[in-house]
UniProtKB/TrEMBL annotation, chain A:
Organismal lineage: Bacteria, Bacillati, Bacillota, Bacilli, Lactobacillales
InterPro entries in the record: UCP031503_TM, YibE_F
Name listed for the protein in its UniProt record: YibE/F family protein
Entry keyword Plastid: no
Keywords: Membrane, Transmembrane, Transmembrane helix
Pfam hit, one: YibE_F
Transmembrane intervals: 36-67, 79-97, 117-142, 178-202, 222-242
Species of origin: Limosilactobacillus reuteri
Signal peptide: none
Recorded superkingdom: Bacteria
Length: 257, 371
């Protein structure tokens, strides 16, 4: 048995033990996300336009993460709509930023790994960099949207008379509670992968200016900062979508309970 | 809402941030004097030739030769113009296509026979980072207020600690990297939670739960590593390795999962404290069950957050492997296996913390009732 199978089995058993049916669905969503991510790579390799792949696979991953993570449709539908809007907004931002930063492809630090490879593959690495930046931020956006939307559903359940203004206010208050820990999740998630690169930079005494203009560093920083921005936009957006959908949330209350 | 939201303070804050932002952007787009490397601005470009290239895997691309007229922005030849050559391709993996107005770094700048010559060595990117950083700070402060400020502060402090720890690691030549980053993980957790939650019993409980959860997960994973003899782990496929790969990989994994475990622990502990406040007579069993219920609904999305961060990083590399005629299996093994292991270990940490944190919170809050 390989280590991946072993760890996967341990994770599956733990998830089912801790979460029961929900744990099993969560594990399944992880497998499906992996499948779709790999499928995205294959599609791009077969010259399907990367932007098309990004949008379709992005929506699929959002749907899997949100609808398989929670059963309450009032929460999930709101979260899904909100995250779709955020996806469109950051897509525009990423296009501008990536165009400006030109961090596609590989840096000089990658030269070792690229030895003996043919790197001129006829697929625009620029478009691929847009794809990777978006996909890496989707998990965080989905998670934030679900947190806000489930909190607001609960508030609407107990106080259906709340005005839209109060609802947005509550959404922002929940956002303030989760923003600190969400930022830390993203920070550590990205910096964990950064460790080897940073040891390289500091070990070879790269100057501050060199690091700030280094292709790989800038690419990683853009990924982190775009994820931060994505999460930040998600908070008011989810609250806003909830005000538009409040009727169906309140109406569905007895049915889903 | 709008009237309440736009208080005088906020308007001043917005004006202040705007001024700082514009100032920072102006500075980074005119900071050439602070660089030792020569920087030049492209003032005109001409494409000289186009060439079709095809490799043995039938990948078709085009290469172009570009002649750039650039003006030096710093150094002793400041203001002088010269012509440099640049090659770029359609896919632009390591080359760049420059446009008029771009600023580029030059190397081997010298005067030969009264004419300046140089090679292009990369694009100036610092303005982009400063712009995005500014955008994040602006949105954080305007949308999240005080808690946004503390969230940002904790990220900045953690980044500084991270750099200090790497310096220590380099001094020791990576001898004790696991020990070093384990200690760092504990400090990281303490500081982040202190800034996010403030010093309280709740914060101490979250802190203890996070540390226990993370390290137990690592321990369990080490057992699986031993049991499967680390078959199928290709440490040689790790990127940017300058030290012994295995401990480095484990340190990366430890740090990577820390934030998510912290996120989950603080959510569970917060709910338990709220329950305790609503009903001081709540039993340990009730607390444990509610903790588990909160935990099991957030663990799935959290694992997916980390999974996407770890795996998407390997996207470009995997694409290259497939286009170089490698099989799908080999592509996976060489690019994605380490990311998968990282996601799985983090996943185990996230799942294990649910009962651990719930138990911990239940014991802590339950005891007080009996007293």
């Amino acid at each position: 048995m390989t280590t991946i199978t072993g760890l996967g089995l341990v994770l599956l058993i733990l998830m089912v033990l801790v979460g029961g049916k929900q744990g099993w669905t969560a594990f399944l969503s992880l497998l499906l996300n992996f499948g779709f991510l790999y499928f995205a790579i294959i599609l791009v390799a077969f010259h399907v336009p990367p932007l098309f792949v990004t949008v379709t696979i992005g929506i699929t991953i959002l749907a899997i993460t949100i609808f398989m993570g929670e059963d309450d449709l009032r929460t999930t539908v709101t979260a899904f709509y909100a995250s779709l809007i955020v996806l469109c907004l950051i897509l525009v931002l990423i296009f501008i930023v990536e165009h400006w930063a030109m961090v596609q492809g590989f840096g000089t630090e990658d030269s070792d790994e690229l030895e003996g490879m043919s790197i001129l593959i006829g697929i625009s690495y620029f478009k691929v960099s847009v794809t990777t930046t978006i996909l890496s931020s989707l998990g965080a956006i989905a998670e934030a949207a679900m947190a806000i939307s489930s909190g607001l559903t609960e508030i609407l359940e107990n106080h259906p008379e709340r005005t839209n203004r109060q609802l947005i206010h509550s959404g922002m208050a929940i956002g303030q509670q989760i923003i600190g820990t969400t930022f830390n999740t993203l920070f550590f998630g990205f910096f964990g992968g950064f460790l080897a690169l940073f040891i390289w930079f500091l070990g070879l005494h790269y100057s501050f200016g060199t690091i700030m203009n280094n292709k790989i560093f800038v690419a990683e920083m853009i990924e982190i900062l775009i994820s931060f921005i994505g999460v930040l936009i998600t908070v008011p957006m989810t609250a806003w979508v909830m005000t538009k959908r409040r009727k169906s949330v309140v109406d569905n209350y007895p049915k889903t309970k | 809402m709008i009237k309440q939201y736009w208080t005088k303070q906020r308007i001043w804050l917005l004006i202040f941030l705007m001024v700082v932002g514009i100032g920072a952007l102006l500075f980074t787009s005119h900071n050439e004097q602070f660089y030792q490397q020569p920087i030049a601005k492209v003032i005109s470009k001409k494409t000289l030739s186009k060439q079709r290239v095809k490799d043995q895997f039938d990948n078709v691309d085009h290469q172009y030769n570009q002649q750039l007229q650039v003006k030096l922005m710093n150094g002793k030849y400041r203001g002088q113009k010269l012509t440099v050559q640049n090659t770029y391709s359609d896919s632009q993996p390591m080359d760049q296509r420059y446009r008029v107005g771009n600023e580029v770094f030059l190397t081997q700048l010298r005067k030969r026979g009264g004419k300046l010559t140089a090679n292009v060595n990369g694009y100036k990117r610092d303005t982009v980072i400063v712009f995005l950083l500014w955008l994040v700070v602006l949105m954080l402060l305007l949308l999240m207020g005080r808690s946004g400020m503390f969230a940002f502060l904790s990220v900045v402090i953690n980044a500084l600690l991270f750099i200090i720890a790497i310096e220590i690691d380099l001094k020791q030549n990576g001898q004790h990297i696991m020990l070093l980053f384990s200690v760092l993980a504990i400090i990281f957790t303490f500081i982040s939670l202190l800034l996010v939650l403030g010093f309280s019993k709740r914060m101490l409980a979250t802190f203890a739960a996070t540390v226990i959860g993370t390290f137990v997960a690592l321990g369990v994973s080490m057992l699986v590593f031993m049991w499967t003899h680390e078959r199928g782990i290709y440490y040689e496929s790790m990127e940017y390795v300058t030290q012994v790969p295995r401990p480095l990989f484990l340190a990366e994994t430890l740090l990577g999962s820390l934030g998510a475990v912290m996120d989950e622990s603080s959510d569970i502990i917060a709910t338990l404290f709220e329950l305790k406040q609503l009903n001081p007579a709540v039993t340990r069993k009730q607390l444990f069950i509610s903790g588990r219920n909160v935990g099991k609904s957030i663990m799935g999305p959290l694992i997916n957050v980390l999974f996407l961060i770890f795996m998407v990083d390997t996207f470009t590399g995997s694409l290259l492997y497939i286009k170089n005629g490698n099989s799908w299996g080999y592509t996976y093994a060489m690019n994605m296996s380490l990311g998968t292991i990282q996601s799985l270990i983090s996943g185990i940490g996230i799942v294990l913390s649910v009962p651990l944190v719930s138990l911990f919170g239940a014991l802590l809050l339950g005891k007080k009732v009996q007293r």
